[in-house]
TrEMBL record:
One Pfam family of this chain: KH_KhpA-B
Database matches in PANTHER family: RNA-BINDING PROTEIN KHPA (PTHR34654:SF1), UPF0109 PROTEIN SCO5592 (PTHR34654)
Protein name: RNA-binding protein KhpA
Subcellular location: Cytoplasm
Source organism of the structure: Neobacillus piezotolerans
HAMAP family linked: KhpA (MF_00088)
UniProt lineage: Bacteria, Bacillati, Bacillota, Bacilli, Bacillales
Length: 76
């Protein structure tokens, strides 16, 4: 899943080397924290959050087979 997030986000940003995905696993949930360069935040979020929503939709659909709830947080 981490690789999927990186594959989606890296072509969108100007600084793909700054893309980081940290994974935090708990009992019933997995949280992926996506961090990008400060100047790329607008590109990842998109107008009215459309790009971020699309990324989350793909990630949640890919993780639907897992028994844990997935969350994707986007930050700097």
């Amino acid at each position: 899943m981490k690789q999927l997030i990186e594959t989606i986000v890296k072509p969108l940003v100007d600084f793909p080397e700054d893309v980081r995905v940290n994974v935090m696993e708990e009992d019933q949930r997995v949280t992926y924290h996506l961090s990008v360069n400060k100047s790329d935040m607008g590109k990842v979020i998109g107008k009215q959050g459309r790009v971020a929503k699309a990324i989350r939709t793909v990630v949640y659909a890919a993780g639907a087979s897992e028994q844990k709830k997935l969350f994707l947080e986007i930050g700097e």
